[in-house]
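Lab meeting minutes (informal)
Scribe: AK
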Amino acid sequence: MTKDYDHNRFHTTPANPLQTQLINLLRSPNPNRAEAEDLYLRLVATRAWQLAQAGFRDEGRGALLFDMRGRLWPSVLAQPLDSYFVPQLLLAQADEELDPMLEIAVASYDPRHEFVCVVLYDEGPSVSRLSQRDLAA
């Protein structure tokens, strides 16, 4: 029998210092969105790295896509990781709302040490090129 995911665990029993930092930041009156997203991404970095590596191995170059549209911030940061690897060819065919820098980032990242992450927000996309070094900091 498997135990159901406990969404409240995120808020009540921090598993590591990054999680504690994120919880404290989100409890502040005006949490800094960029700082919170950075902490969240570092928390899920191991899984994101595994997904990016598997995507590259199976599909070639591409990007991890996180769709946050329609979700309330900052509560979205308490939810489990939900992402998809999108191959370069499909990204090129995507509608124009994607950042033009995405094409450059996907074409130039080093898959041995980096991956590209696209976060879709209601107000538009955010593109990041992340390295293992960045995520471990």
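Next up, CB showed the second protein from the same session:
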Amino acid sequence: MNFLEVLLNFPTEEQVRKFCKPGRWRETCSYLATGGHRLWECVKFAGSKYENKQIFRGPSTSGNDNCPGILGFLADNQDRLKGRTVEYGGSQNVFEAIEMDDDTLHIFWSGGENGVSYGLKDLYIAVDRWKVVFGIKGLGDIGSTIVFLSW
């Protein structure tokens, strides 16, 4: 699969087996859900999408956090986003980088001098064929950052 296919189908079957571990008792990730148009979905940064999903815990209620979710995939593949258009606060810029520390995501654009930060606890990420939206759970588009995926 290419980058866009993996992004749109996150988590892939391989990622589910490797990281999410359905049915593996206490090893099962607490963010693995089933429902919607795909068998498995990651709801770690899903925001309101979470309300329509059934969390797959199998026999586990351990609350495992097995990986950095789609944010980790985006951070590991941020070179695929470099040079893309970023929209924030009504202005458009050029994506430069994603950085994370223990509890914050930083998105930089236009030379790395400008950007925005989001607390990971309240972060939601929405992906479709045309864009990746980073925002704050419950606020909708207010304060969101959009990275356009023009393929």
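CB comment: Helices lie at 3-8, 13-20, 69-76.
No objections, moving on.
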